[in-house]
């Protein structure tokens, strides 16, 4: 609480003077009050501010003006939310989506050369580049995981350099953060924001966008670090199925987080809705987490690390519109076939 030796009004006046003049020295010079007095009252004002939880040095407003000031803030928030939901990526014909999640580029078990090759191959396909979260481990700030960080050879400065390089070569179209970014608080997220391209479709945990092709059907995509877990460890796509059953109007669901591979096409005939659910395992190929949940994490898991989803916006009702491949070479072959088919 404020020093009881100072009247509340004097403490608030000292805070106002310092805020107005920029320093204790200039506040004292302008007011004619002794500098030591101003300083002691100003320090007391800080205690008062913290004790009540609000800024007492607020600008003068009427109650009605304080109420009305909410309108512009609310409108900006709603507009921002609608803009994220309405994000559109344009393509000219059949296209590829590269789903890359959980690269953990500062982990000794992550295959960075394979990741680099996959990124280059995806750019060669003019793929829509989607990052699904967990760029880094960020274990130093994660409490119980700090011991695992100590076992890694990558230093914290190198981890940040790797993260920046990943963004530079990846050039994402859509980006979501994961739980490892969340564990690090706002600091890493702020750095990532500064490194990402300005036009990237960006959100926390999940981002939705539409791929639009002239003359073809729109393709609605939901990119999430993880959808709802569902109730089954035996069905990797269970979370995506729950999203679909709850009325989501989405054609492709992309998720990661659990470091497991799974693909499912699901049809809801009563709603004439058919969706593709894709779970990618990520690039941490030797995974202690995988050992714990499946007793199978001690050998490199290359298959299903990422997926290349080839989509045909001109597919008929009885045709498959999207197919997920586990290698860019197969995706390229299928894409070439679709392009030849539609050109004919």
Structure description:
By secondary structure, the chain is α/β, with parallel strands linked by helices. The chain has two domains: 45 residues; 257 residues, 4-Layer Sandwich (Purple Acid Phosphatase, chain A, domain 2). 41% of the residues lie in helices and 18% in strands. The strands form two sheets. Strands 1-6-7-8-10-9 form a six-stranded mixed beta sheet, with helices on one face. The chain has a six-stranded mixed beta sheet with strand order 5-4-3-2-11-12. Helix 5 links the parallel strand 2 and strand 3. Helix 1 crosses helix 2, helix 1 packs across helix 3 and helix 2 packs across helix 3. It is elongated, with a radius of gyration of 27 Å.
List keywords for this structure.
344 residues, alpha/beta, Purple Acid Phosphatase, chain A, domain 2, six-stranded mixed sheet, 41% helix, elongated
So how many helices?
12
Domain count, please report it: 2
Helix and strand composition category:
alpha/beta
CATH architecture of the largest domain: 4-Layer Sandwich
Radius of gyration: 27 Å
CATH superfamily of the largest domain: Metallo-dependent phosphatases
Strand content: 15-25%
CATH topology group of the largest domain: Purple Acid Phosphatase, chain A, domain 2
Structure summary, number of beta strands: 12
What gross morphology would you assign?
elongated
SSE order, one letter for each helix or strand? HHHHEEHEHHEHHEEEHEEEHEEH
N-C termini distance: 79 Å
CATH top level label of the largest domain = Alpha Beta
The helix content, as a percent range, equals 40-55%
Uncertain ranges: 49-54
Sheet with most strands: strand arrangement: 1-6-7-8-10-9
Mean pLDDT: 83
Biggest sheet, open or closed, and with what strands and sense?
Answer: 6 strands, mixed
């Amino acid at each position: 609480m404020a020093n009881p030796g100072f009247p509340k009004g004097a403490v608030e006046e000292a805070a106002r003077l310092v805020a107005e003049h920029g320093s204790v020295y200039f506040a004292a010079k302008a007011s004619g009050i002794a500098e030591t007095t101003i300083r002691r009252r100003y320090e007391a004002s800080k205690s008062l501010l913290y004790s009540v939880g609000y800024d007492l040095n607020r600008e003068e407003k009427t109650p009605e003006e304080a109420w009305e000031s909410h309108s512009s803030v609310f409108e900006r928030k709603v507009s921002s939310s609608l803009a994220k939901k309405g994000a559109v990526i344009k393509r000219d014909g059949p296209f590829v989506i590269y789903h890359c999640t959980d690269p953990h580029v500062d982990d000794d078990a992550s295959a960075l050369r394979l990741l680099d090759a996959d990124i280059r191959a995806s750019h060669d396909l003019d793929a829509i580049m989607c990052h699904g979260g967990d760029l880094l481990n960020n274990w130093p700030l994660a409490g119980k995981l700090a011991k695992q960080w100590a076992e890694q050879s990558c230093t914290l400065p190198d981890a940040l350099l790797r993260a920046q390089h990943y963004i530079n070569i990846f050039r994402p179209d859509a980006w979501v953060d994961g739980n490892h970014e969340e564990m690090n608080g706002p600091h890493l997220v702020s750095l990532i924001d500064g490194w990402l391209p300005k036009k990237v479709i960006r959100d926390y945990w999940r981002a939705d966008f539409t791929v639009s092709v002239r003359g073809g059907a729109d393709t609605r995509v939901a990119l999430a670090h993880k959808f709802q877990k569902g109730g089954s460890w035996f069905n990797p796509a269970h979370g995506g199925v729950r999203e679909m059953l709850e009325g989501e109007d989405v054609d492709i669901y992309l998720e990661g987080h659990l470091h497991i591979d799974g693909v499912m096409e699901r049809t809801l005939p009563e709603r004439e809705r058919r969706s593709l659910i894709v779970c990618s395992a990520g690039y941490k190929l030797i995974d202690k987490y995988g050992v714990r949940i499946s007793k199978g994490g001690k050998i490199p898991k290359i298959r299903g690390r990422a997926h290349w989803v080839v989509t045909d916006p001109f597919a008929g009702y009885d045709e498959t519109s999207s197919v997920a491949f586990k290698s860019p070479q197969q995706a390229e072959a299928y894409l070439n076939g679709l392009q030849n088919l539609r050109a004919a």
